[in-house]
Amino acid sequence: KVWTWSSYLEEEKAIAAPPKIFKEYQSFPYNKNGFKVGMKLEGVDPEHQSMYCVLTVAEICGYRIRLHFDEYPDCYDFWLNADSSDIHPVGWCEKTGHKLHPPKGYKEDEFNWPAYLKKCKAQAAPKSLFENQNTTVIPSGFRIGMKLEAVDKKNPAFICVATVTDIVDNRFLVHFDNWDESYDYWCEAASPHIHPVGWCKEHKKTLVIPPDYPHGKHFSWEKYLEETSSLPAPARAFKVKLSHGFQKNMKLEAVDKRNPALIRVATVVESEDHRIKIHFDGWDSIYDYWIDADNSDIHPAGWCGKTGYPLQPPLSPLELVEALEQGGCPTAGCRGVGHIKRARHMGHHSVVNCPYSEINLNKEHTLSDRLSGETPLNNPTMHWNRKSELNERSASPIINSRKCPSPSHTGVKPAPHLQPSREEDTDVKLLCKKPLMFDVKEENYRGEHAKELTGKDGSEERKMENEVLSIKETKDSKETNSRSSHLQPVILSSKLTIPAFPLRWEQHSKLLPTVAGIPASKVSKWSTDEVSEFIRSLPGCEEHGKVFKDEQIDGEAFLLMTQADIVKIMSIKLGPALKIFNSILMFKAADKNSHNEL
Q: Could you tell me which residues belong to the region Disordered (predicted)?
């Protein structure tokens, strides 16, 4: 039976969100998507919105395009609509005075488009394809350098001191003073996220001031504007924020943020002034999340059908049962499509790499930063433990910043936010210091790995057992065990059982010497570079280190890999895969040893 919106709305006795309440860029497009795979262009990096980069069209589907950062791993690819304001034709940056960040390995002063296109034998996307080239610019009161108060979109409870740092057509770039540019975002004059100077004081809201500002306890806009030789954005420049019109139980189509290649049937389950909470029909409510009502990832019912994009229909109870019976990914409702490492992978076979599994459910970041290589913490409301100093005499409390309490955690200019409560404060410290937690069901773990390590008759396992047992124990094994027992161990669930061959890791270490004495608790803290170096150090695995680096596998992800992941996802042959997977087991066994000795 073919699923249709009309039948579904009738069955559910539901209503679709009317097209008129959607923004023009959310609604049905006027033109077809004319982009072709391989075309090159310039565009905004969604994770660093102040940066324009060299991009290539990697995939076309309906009215959407997947863009690739030239010379970077394709795990950083991202999807957007063909009429997006974030993309521009080749040469736009030079024409408008914007800095273009060239492909990795190129120097800015040496890069030029004609030579690059010739070298790549590529075509520049024609200017006629860019809808924003015909934008009617409405005069605005905003100017570069003007100050305002703006919501931190990554931590929406906080309003911070900000500056207009760029203007393009009817949009301008908001930058938070003294913070790095990863928090910057583009908006229009009617955005609900921006306010004139003094708005927080007038509405008795907390204003987050720039970090390291010397007069934090007695912040005054008048003084700050004088010190920075700045002007406030005039109040008249801020346009009236109209109500969005979405109501509870309205149906629409929405991009799945956990799997951005998919658009699903969704329902508005809650509504606030400027955002809505969406629920994917048929899915558990744990997957619900808030999204700005003006986000370009939501569309009226029928958008996919009209633009030629595949729509994921609601999940039926029968499909939930069938998916579990058919094997593959054990996450309820998941068909094995998508991967936590994003566009690089088309599918997955285990909960470790499933975007919908419990272990990945609340992870906002699964990749290291494309530029710095650092992996941000995954709880945006508790990125950092920042102590606040409230000026009790002020109608607008002033917040000062402090560093994370963990001595091993330095980080790069954290997101501005308030001091947590005492309970939250403790959680933040634990977030930095507590060991990694695993909770793996015994039957799943034993069954999956036992099958992977044995042939039909178990001969491969017995062969490995005999090889291990034939090696004499080394004298320093006790000493090594003693050393590992003093390290903080990974907390393995009591349900977790490592596969059945002997777990005498000091004997295994003779076969894989680079693994000896390293507990999982240490491995869990490895960076992607450290994982890559370790893989290279294994006999016969020298060429595979690069694969792990390209896939952005850090220590935590490495420990959670199954042999099936290594063979199927990483495309590594069984021999090297066995060595790599056995290393993972030995790391965990080292921790188990240290537990037993304690």
A: 398-426
